Amino acid sequence: MWQVPFDSLLQIFVASMLPVGELRLGIPLGILALDLHWFPVLIISFMGNLVPVLPILLLLNWVPRLIPYFPSWVNKIWLFQNKRVVALHGKYSSYVSVKNSESKNLIILILLVAVPLPFTGVWTGCLVAWILRVPLNRAFPPIALGTLIAGLFVTALVLGPLEWLANILLIDAG
Predict the structure, then answer these.
(1) Domain boundaries along the sequence of the chain
(2) Closest CA to 133 of 92, 89, 94
């Protein structure tokens, strides 16, 4: 199969875990900088990007329980934000259909994680899943699917121009 050094795999894995780049950083790093085949890079980036999902979702569920132990100004901000969210929900809930809202939330998660733009990805998807109160067992599959779609898309973007350039050069050379 492919001979891939362990240190290169580790670099890709860790780069894909970071909240700044995620697999949008890991895939170009592996394919362009480390000159590895796209398939193992995609798999390692996908796995590295999914590693933080469970800890993030579990830690976010502990935030409301930990707030009382913070200084009083943090409690005031937390209560103020909660009151705003409840007020906005009451104001706009008549405009939003509650029917099939869970499936809409899952589609939102898939799209949010799949689109390779700034401030989208696994970390933001976990935060949105927590805000939408999607349970952990229901949030993980759409986040994983969105990560796979994003990985395939980024891989195609990284390989596309390079393959096109190689074909152009071969045509001109021949």
Answers:
(1) 6-173
(2) 89
